[in-house]
Write a structure and sequence with these properties.
This protein has three helices and seven strands; from the N terminus they run αβββββββαα. With 166 residues, the chain is of the alpha+beta class. It has two domains: 9-30 and 117-161; 34-111, no CATH class. A hairpin with a 4-residue loop joins strand 5 and strand 6 (87-89).
Length: 166
């Protein structure tokens, strides 16, 4: 974008924030490091938890609540992070059973590519720039056209980073 005035700085800042959210939603990733809490009722039987949004950067804490609602920390060695697959692996029958019927397990993780915009892959940063420019040039009602929300080339830029669910 070539803008030679400051009159629309607030609009452009809002477009950047919106484009980042749009790309994060399309890829199911967190671009900048964020802390998230995964809440489960029970341990999944396959012994794996897929962390979304990804990519998984750190496993910070794992708690299981007893029937009184008191949290009990799980040994960090009991849950193994697989950073490449953005999953947490564990042995289901070795994990303590939560005492409360809902939200008995809390897992705190850090996800994202890094702490700064420079840590985000260039193709994702370029996709954000293209979405911002497109939205800036095509302001107003788009008539419900899904393709009008972002240029077709954005899909190609983000395709390698899309985390698809099976």
């Amino acid at each position: 974008m070539r803008i030679e005035h400051n009159d629309e700085n607030e609009l452009i800042a809002a477009l950047i924030a919106g484009a980042r959210s749009h790309i994060e939603a399309q890829t199911q990733t967190a671009l900048i490091a964020q802390d998230w809490r995964v809440v489960l009722d029970a341990w999944p039987q396959p012994g794996r938890i897929i962390v979304r949004p990804g990519p998984l950067k750190a496993l910070n804490a794992t708690r299981v609540f007893d029937c009184n609602g008191d949290p009990h920390m799980i040994d960090p060695q009991a849950v193994a992070p697989d950073f490449g697959a953005s999953t947490l692996a564990f042995v289901p029958w070795a994990m303590p059973v939560p005492g409360r019927i809902a939200a008995g397990i809390e897992i705190d993780v850090t996800v994202g590519f890094g702490d700064d915009a420079e840590d985000v892959p260039e193709s994702l940063r370029q996709a954000i720039r293209m979405v911002v420019a497109h939205w800036y040039e095509n302001r107003g009602f788009m008539g419900g056209n899904q393709n009008a929300s972002s240029p077709a080339t954005v899909a190609a830029l983000i395709a390698p980073y899309r985390m698809l669910s099976i």
